[in-house]
Amino acid sequence: xxxxxxxxxxxxxxxxxxxxxxxxxxxxxxxxxxxxxxxxxxxxxxxxxxxxxxxxxxxxxxxxxxxxxxxxxxxxxxxxxxxxxxxxxxxxxxxxxxxxxxxxxxxxxxxxxxxxxxxxxxxxxxxxxxxxxxxxxxxx
Length: 140
Fold this sequence. Notes:
With 140 residues, the chain is an all-alpha fold. It is built from seven helices and no strands. It has one domain: Orthogonal Bundle (Ribonuclease iii, N-terminal Endonuclease Domain, Chain A), CATH 1.10.1520.10.
């Protein structure tokens, strides 16, 4: 099976809410990172060193934690529940350079992103990522 077939087989996951929250966060981390990179390219940042420097601002646990706080009011009950599951998930990973609270909240955001991706809800995912982009870019 080619890697493309494997990627598209994710569409066959019809009950993402049944997956463990850390699995959703694992997928969400990748989707979030890809969204950030695409956003930076769309803004005209095409040198890899500048892309990396720009991406760091978006992907750090503190930023993701603040992003989750800023979108909580716009989440549906279902989305808020998914984010809480991610935030409360017990991980064996110890955060580097971030507080435990920020790290856990960032896991909640990644869990939500993974959930929306696997639920095949690109419109809602884009809406949430746009809010994240606005938050980060307003902090310049």
